Amino acid sequence: MATAYEAVIGLEVHVELKTNTKIFCSCTTEFGGDPNTHVCPGCLGFPGTLPVMNKKAVEYAVRAGLALNCAINPYSRFDRKNYFYPDLPTAYQISQYFHPICKEGYVEIELGGKKKKIRINRIHLEEDAGKLLHSGSSITSSQYSMADYNRASVPLIEIVSEPDMRSPEEARAYLEKLRAILEYTGVSDVKMEQGSLRCDANISLRLVGSTEFGTKTEIKNMNSFRSLQRALEYEIDRQQDVLEEGGTIIQETRGWDEEKGITSSMRSKEEATDYRYFPDPNLPPIVLDPAWIKTIKASLPELPDARKERLVKECGLSEYDAGIITSSRSLAEFFDRTVVLFNEPKTVANWMMGEYLRLLNAEGLEVSESKVTPEKLAALLKLQADGKISGKMAKVVFEELFNTGKEPETIVKEKGMVQISDTGALEEIVMKVLAANPQSVADYQAGKEKAIGFLVGQVMKETKGQANPGIVNQLLKKKLSE
Amino acid sequence: MSSLLGLTAHQLQGLLEKKELSCAELVKAHLAKIEESDGEIKAFTRVTREAALEQAQAMDAQRSRGEGLAPLAGIPMALSDNLCTKGIVTTCSSRMLENFRPPYNATVVEKLQEAAAVLLGKCNLDEFGLGDSTESSAFFPTRNPHDLQASAGGACGGAAAAVAAQEVVFALGSDAGGSVRQPAAFCGVIGLKPTYGLVSGYGLIAAGSSLDQVGCFTRDFTDGALVLESICGADVQDSNSVSSPHTDFTKHLVNDVKGLKIGLPKEYIEGVAPKVKTAYEQAVAKLEELGAVCEELSLPHTKYALPCYEIVLAAEASSNLARYDGVRYGLRVEAEDVESMYNKTRGQGFGEEAKKQILFGTYVLSAQQYQDYYLKALKVRTLIKQELEQALEKYDCLLTPTTPTVAFNLAGKGKNHHGRGGVQTHGLTCPASLAGLPAVSFPFGKAQGRPIGLQLIGRAFGEGMLLRVGYTLEQNTDLTQLSPAVKGER
Lengths: 482, 490
Fold this sequence. Notes:
The structure holds two protein chains of two kinds. Chain A is α+β, with helices and mostly antiparallel strands. Chain A is built from 15 helices and 16 strands. Chain A is elongated and about 95 Å long. Chain B is of the alpha/beta class. Chain B has an eleven-stranded mixed β-sheet with strand order 1-3-2-6-8-7-12-13-11-9-10, sandwiched between helices. A two-stranded antiparallel sheet of chain B has the order 4-5. In chain B, helix 7 runs antiparallel to helix 14 and helix 9 packs across helix 11. The longest helix of chain B is centred in the C-terminal third of the chain and has 24 residues. Classes of the chains: A alpha+beta, B alpha/beta.
């Protein structure tokens, strides 16, 4: 019989802060400039230059910490992490090792209706490194490598969790929740594809019931939520196989290969660098004023959990719908603004969960990039509610709205889509359909109620879909019972 | 023309104002002096002759138009070659930066430009400021203008020698543990290390960042006050720089020490050469004669200062010197992969002393040794700081010798100087650096033809007190003015 193992997972998440300028100089942090155009002697590590702290980065770190239920350290400090790599201009990264800015927070996740708190050990501020582009597959096998320092010294926070997760699903839920909360606070773009959200995982196995930790491996190179989950699933299987064959896990760093779907060894603990951390003498400690921290706390927006609860309680949304709508701040705000204009929260939620998200996902767009506005969606829903267009028409109009951004009213006019709700006009068509389909009439009158569906369809066909189906239904029933 | 040499900035300023002298004449006289004597002294790594002449002429033109003169206008000066000068090669006396042209000026360089001082060149130092004799310079050692067999001291021996040899009127250097004060003592000039943070360190190529402080070499205390006034002030580019309310230094040039309490820490006299001790006692007697109250005191932690300083300096230097990796600027020795490129570049780019400091610093910061060495050194540093600050609550300043002996001999060509042990002659100067306190070395007679230096240590931002005591001694004895510096008229 197979032994029962339990996974123990902790995540280290790097988040790029959305400040205008870099953490220790005044270069722009803008993404995607030509190589080495967002640099100065400071972020290139030229001799004699000195770092100067960006206050906004401190504010954002505090903001993130408060949103993640952390205690904010009134005294924090920068340390140097010393190692050689061509993307690191000074050969040391300025980070916070001994006194991080935030500690002891948590994030609550929910899986299968069960809630669980994942504790956060610490959040520290640090600078990013540059980017290397190799002519070959790696720095050692390349003829040459090119270095781009635009990203060097962009501010980062590293969020280190406790090893509180027990499955890949929990790890994914934690990362998704973290992403949502940080998006709400506005401190980062939190885009995994652009690298503004990056995640490494520590994972070990132990026998169920054991309280001791097994030997862990660190997994790198996971570029999406899905690859995080897949990599952890793979690594659990791999470690389990090793253990079941009586082997031992080697403490090492392993890289996830998305294409092959495997992890493989990058370096072992013996090869690990001694970073020789020590306080950076160039930067005075950060001493925070409690009043300033209070101001930041007061400026935090309603966070995903509170918002979800409100949507369930006040708008009558299902837990599931509320969860999806509050998973991003832009989606949740879109919902709130639409409901203000069209006060039927469930209808709004249905449209967002259905058509809107389907089209956004299909096009790979963010809410902010889409042409649909709360005003336009509300106008569309109003047209439908007033019976001016049918539900089917509304879907066509929405698609047009999504693609062109035109006013729903205009689209309806352009398409000649006005719904026929005029009883007199419809009666004529109904009579014609009844006359043409005696079999269906007979079926209905014999008790086959389903036959009415076919008749409704025929009326809609005759009117090119413009008839108000509700009124058609009423008319048919009336005529058939006469 | 040679009578111009040896004059101080404030004396020359008078002549310039009265139009008895032009900037061009003044600059030419000093360039000629460099031509004449620097072949032997070797104070300079680079002389910026053309730019200096151009600037002097521009200033003469400005003056003939009746435009006002800035405080140091037209005064010839030099910079230690670890201060970045825009477009002018800044070597740090290392092969690593032999062709490095910074795209920016150090803040002090900007300030001296505003004050319109004329740069004549860059001065030799121990490689990256690590050493006490300029013998670790990748290029050549600097000789002592008082005795060519003797070292000019270090790290900033070139800047001290340039002032002592009358090649320039003043110079800037940096002091991490004595690199301004010790060469000033060896060369018989004044070397002032201000309070940590009073002068911006932006553009100073770092050795030990928590210790490094830009300081100045001058011929008298009045010049010291003038130069300090020109270079001090908070700088947004240096987070450790501070704005002090007490920067009217020339005001403190008062010939009066009556009633001042001067502490004489006995640990600083232990093991000091007899002639240095005699000079020290003479200075004490003079100050008492002038009405100061001198009192012996004990600073028992002094003996730990040197090892503590060596650990902190090496640790910080090992990290500061890591950026010289051949990737972005400076020397690169091509190799087949990045690892061997690092090894070759750093292997060939750094001299023996820098390598020794990197090895030692890397060791004391390693995870296994951090607690026993670096962390302990930080704790000892705090004790030394507290001890000095407590003493300075009681005393207006402290008087000590600057170095235990006069200048030692240069090792000679091809001979290894490393046996002497790096920065040992910074034993009496490093405590003030560890504590971030201001200190100044001034000449007080000679022994065997080599200058003797004494040191005043003051309270944080108490430069004014040091200038006052020094100025008073200067006014009441001939011992602070040493040949070959010609004593000017007052």
